[in-house]
Structures are given as C-alpha cells and as structure tokens.
Design goal:
Shape: elongated
Number of helices: 20
Structural class: mainly alpha
Largest sheet: none
Helix content: over 70%
Order of helices and strands: HHHHHHHHHHHHHHHHHHHH
Strand content: under 5%
Distance between the termini: 17 Å
Radius of gyration: 25 Å
C-alpha cells in the first residue's frame, strides 16, 4: 500500500476500518474528560482534595502527551496494526486496575499506565485512516476522526455522570474493559498491517525523559503556585527548570539521528501554524469542560447526573457538524474554517464567563451549542492542514506531534485554569465573608450577642473551606440556620439564611469570570495563525 498522502483509491474496507479504530480512539480520548465529572466523588471516596485529584487528570495528560510522538515513530517501524493493538490491550488492562484502585496514589499510578496505551491509540488511528481513505477524501477522513475525537472528549462528563449516579466512579474505568476487548478483536481482523520505515525509527528515551521532566516541572509549578506562593524559591526553581529542560530537549532532538520531535517539520508553514493553534485550542478546551462541571455543581447545585446532562448539547452539536466540516475543508480549504472556529471559541468562553447564580441548565445548553460548533470547525481544519502538508515518510511522527501539541495545551490548560479558579474561588469566599459580616452587623433586629455569634460562624465556615479545599463550594446560610435554630424567630432566621446563601452564590459565580474569560482571550491570540494555513489542502506540501 502506498503512503497516505499518495493514495488515490483507498482501502475497500475503509468504513469498517473507521469503526475499528474509532473504538480505540474513543476510549483514549474519553478518559481525558470522563474523570472531570468524578472529581467530587473521588474527593469523598479517596479522602483527598482538588489539588490531589488534579493529578489524576494531569498524570494522564502528561504521560500521554510525551509519548504520542514515540508511538507515531514506532508505528512506522514495527507496524501500525501491531502498535495500535498493543496500545489498546495495555489501556484495557490499566482501566481494570484503575477501577480497582483503593487510594489516590494507586489511581494516579494506574492512570499513567492507562495513558501509555492511549498515547499509541490516538495518533496511530489517524495514520491508519489516512491510509485507508483516498487522497481526495482526506478532509472527510480527518473530519470524521476529529468528530469522533471531539465527541469522545466532551461526552466524558455525561457518560461519567450517568455511571456515578447509577453505579459508582469505579465504573467509569470498568466500562472500558468490554469495549477495549471488542476493539482489539476488530482491529486484528480488519486493519491492514503497514510498515513505512524499518531502519530509522527508534525509541528516543532521552527525548522522552527530558520532555516528561519539563512538563512535570511546569505543571507542578502551575498547580501548586497558589499554595506555595508564586514568588517562592520552589516555584521559581520549577519554572526555571522547565525552561532549561525544554532547551535541552530541543537541543537533543536537533542532534539525535532519529528524533521523536522533528524540528525540521516546523519549516512547513501549514504544519507549524496548525500545531500552534492546536496548542492554543488545547489550553481552552482542556480546562473549560472541567470548569463547566464545577460551575454546575458548585454554583447551580446540580448533582453529577444533571451536570452531565448540561454537557450533552455541546457534544451533540460537535458530533453532528464535524463530518460536514470535514467535507467543507476538502472544498473550501482550512483557512476560513479555522478562523471561524477560533472566533466562536472566544465568543463561547466569553458567554460562559457571564453566567451567574440564577443561570439555568438552558443557559449552559445554548452556550454549549456555540462551543460545539467551534470545535466542529476548528479541529478538522487544523488536523487536515497539518497532515496533508507533510511528506509521507513523516506521517507517523507528524501525527504524533499534532496530537502532542493538543495534549500539551490540555495539560497547561487544566493546570492553569484550575490554579486560576482556586485563587478566584478563595477570593470569592473572602468577599462573601466580608459581605456577610457587614450584612449581619447591620441587622439591628438581632441582639448584639447573636450578631457576634453569626460573624463567628461565618469566619469559621470560611476558614474550614480554605483548609479542606475540597471542591470549591460552600454556603454560609445552612450553618447559621443550624446554630441559631430555636433562638431566633423562624421567619427572621429563614430570611437571614436565604440572604447569606444568595450572597455566597453570587460571589462563587463571580469566581468563574476570569477562568472562563482567559481561554477566550488566549484563543484570539491564535487567530492570525489561521491565515497562514493554505487556501486548499496540501498547498504547502513538501516534496518527497
């Protein structure tokens, strides 16, 4: 079989191949976001905090990000089907172990193993599809691949919500086992074996080590910045170490005979622009879906199931529109669609930042439709532009670099937005305590001793909230009502409790303004890059 960029007829079983590889890709991407909805349950059952459980997300994202390149290279050498099936089998076994984990440390360790498998499934699935579809349908192929990917990523919370509501968080991992077994069987039966480069491809262990260390230092600094203080020697040292390690990584990759990260590919304008936009998009999407869940649980008071339902419109919109976007990329080229997707991302994030405590699930839904539309335009255009600009010999490593860029963006996005939200949520609690104190002090109908007691309850509740940092949500109304019941007129107490709850909810909703708004600003920074993409697919293709 010829290289993906040169195929003219495609594989006769291309649609069956699509189904086979899609199952594996769905599992790999679903498990990036499915844990988001499980955060409150993990905190309760594993006796940890948001900071602790964030490593269930970050460990997976970091491990997957740094290995994506290696698996693309190894697929070129040892065979696409072999590496896809091996990755899928490892992922399935690790999923079983995750479901059986009894501590946060065990879960993080098994998530790392799970991510190793996912790192092979996702980029190799794209390589296989581009080889199965003819060249004139590469936009369609990447559109379908992107559609499945975006739906899997954003469907994680709804799926997780249903499983947590009717079973437990363990089943968000157990569900992978039967699907993984079925995917292994289908891949063995349907996917053709292809080796492109049997000589040069090798595992770049120093490159893996340097990139892993760099990402770990950067992520740890971002996650712990609020706790350890941003100007502290530890945080500064971690950031400096990250910069130094990135420099050493790039130097090594420049000199290594068979690098996992081919710097020369960035000379291709369409490839470099699509990668940069992918990183920027990953920053936004990596954290915004998590913020949506936290807003619905912490501010609107929904349980995991209703929070999951609130995510469905975004997933459904992306699922429906992305295949059409793939066809439009074939006809119109990637430039216009990438630019339109970028603008819609910024609009959606700005609209999310304006939600308040009186918002409803419908307010989440129609904003999600805009975000889903943005995803359907953005991802197919960038993927198609990047992959079709490459020489066929670099399809494996190129696919890995594209996937790695998005994952690195997601790692940074999750860590950064959780860090920002942690700071704004705490500031919101402080503001709520100040407003509550002023409100209670002005209640002359209460005895001075009662007012002092309420102020003490407000102070203690805020202090406990800061100490536990469990989920970012608290309410000043119920503890006041519980402590003063029977000593204050019921009508007066109910009114005071309701007012305290209202001002608490108001401050908690305001805490989401900047965490939602910043990704929108970041997205717009990538808009000029859209105009560096080709007018048509393959405009910047490098000759073999």
């Amino acid at each position: 079989m010829t290289a993906p960029s040169q195929t003219t007829t495609g594989h006769p079983r291309k649609w069956w191949i699509l189904i086979a590889v899609s199952l594996g890709m769905i599992l790999g991407l679903l498990d990036i976001s499915v844990v988001n909805i499980a955060i409150p349950a993990l905190i309760r059952d594993l006796h940890t905090t948001v900071g602790g459980v964030s490593w269930v997300l970050n460990a997976y994202n970091i491990a997957q990000a740094v290995l994506l390149l290696s698996f693309g290279r190894l697929a070129d050498r040892y065979g696409q089907r072999l590496m896809f099936v091996a990755s899928l089998a490892l992922f399935t076994l690790a999923s079983l172990a995750c479901g059986l984990a009894g501590s946060i440390e065990q879960l993080v360790a098994f998530r790392i193993i799970q991510a190793i498998g996912a790192a092979g499934m996702v980029p190799i699935s794209l390589i296989i599809l581009l080889g199965a579809f003819p060249s004139y349908q590469h936009g369609l192929a990447t559109g379908l691949w992107a559609s499945i990917g975006t739906v899997a990523a954003i469907a994680g919370p709804p799926v997780g919500g249903l499983l947590i509501e009717y079973a437990s968080w363990h089943w968000i991992f157990f569900m992978n086992v039967p699907v993984g077994i079925a995917a292994v069987v289908m891949a063995l039966l349907l996917v053709p074996e292809i080796r492109r480069d049997t000589k040069s491809a090798s595992l770049d262990l120093p490159g893996i080590a340097l990139s892993t260390a760099a990402l770990f230092c950067l992520t740890l600094a971002i996650v712990q910045g609020n706790t350890w203080r941003w100007g502290s020697p530890v945080i500064v040292s971690l950031l400096v170490a990250a910069v130094v390690l990135v420099g050493l990584f790039l130097l090594w990759e420049h000199r290594f005979r068979s690098p996992m990260f081919e710097l020369s590919l960035f000379k291709i304008r369409a490839f470099s622009s699509s990668n940069a936009m992918g990183v920027i998009g990953g920053v936004g999407m990596g954290g915004v879906t998590l913020l949506m869940v936290l807003f619905m649980v912490n501010v609107l008071g929904y349980n995991e199931l209703w929070a999951a339902i609130g995510m469905i419109p975004a997933a459904f919109t992306s699922m429906v529109l992305t295949p059409f976007s793939g066809r439009l990329v074939d006809r119109l080229g990637p430039r216009q669609l990438a630019a339109a997707g970028t603008v819609l991302f910024a609009v959606a994030f700005a609209l999310f930042s304006q939600m308040r405590a009186d918002s409803t699930i419908w307010d989440i839904a129609w904003r999600g439709v805009i975000m889903g539309t943005a995803m359907s335009l953005h991802m197919p255009a960038l993927t198609a532009a990047g992959m079709t600009s490459l020489p066929s010999r670099s399809s494996g490593v190129g696919s890995g670099m594209i996937s790695m860029g998005r994952q690195v963006g997601a790692v940074i996005g999750v860590a950064l937005l959780l860090s920002i939200y942690g700071q704004t949520a705490w500031q919101g609690a402080e503001n709520a305590a100040e407003r509550a104190t002023a409100y209670v002090t002005a209640q002359e109908r209460l005895e001075p001793s009662i007012r002092e007691e309420i102020v003490a309850i407000v102070t203690e509740t805020t202090r406990e909230h800061a100490a536990t940092a469990a989920a970012g949500s608290f309410d000043l109304g119920p503890p006041v009502a519980a402590a003063l019941g029977g000593r204050v007129d019921s009508g007066t107490l109910a009114a005071i409790s309701a007012d305290l709850t209202a001002l608490t909810d108001d401050e908690q909703s305001k805490a989401f303004l900047w965490p939602f708004l910043i990704p929108g600003i970041v997205a717009l920074l990538g808009l000029p890059l859209a105009f560096l993409l080709g007018r048509r697919l393959g405009d910047h293709r490098v000759a073999e």
